[in-house]
Amino acid sequence: xxxxxxxxxxxxxxxxxxxxxxxxxxxxxxxxxxxxxxxxxxxxxxxxxxxxxxxxxxxxxxxxxxxxxxxxxxxxxxxxxxxxxxxxxxxxxxxxxxxxxxxxxxxxxxxxxxxxxxxxxxxxxxxxxxxxxxxxxxxxxxxxxxxxxxxxxxxxxxxxxxxxxxxxxxxxxxxxxx
Length: 178
Fold this sequence. Notes:
The protein is α+β, with helices and mostly antiparallel strands.
């Protein structure tokens, strides 16, 4: 403080109270500003950490390859031709994938309804090829198909296009077959 402010504060106690109040208000303001900055930094760091975890999860999910579908005629019975419909699934990751489903919707099965043809395997180990084979009868023209699985961290993924990157599965119907 300057000499005149000290003399003024000494001669009038109200001025001293005002100066103290202003100092306290400025202290409270800068304390609040420091708290806001600290919270902003913590939130930004959490967002970066979450983004990195998601990037790592997608990198791991990309190591699961779904090469598409294949159909092979295996016989005929009173219901028509029997085919073996296969979704080609390989786990190239270093961790097992769990609850692996192969699902197929024939042309007359709407995609928003459950797949008429489906197969499930409990786990596909690292480095393992797991053809997802379904025995089907009749017309094998597909409306859609999908492979879906759960990674070792509990995230659910799916692929519904040949050679496509996995996307997070949240119950959405598959895209139409190309």
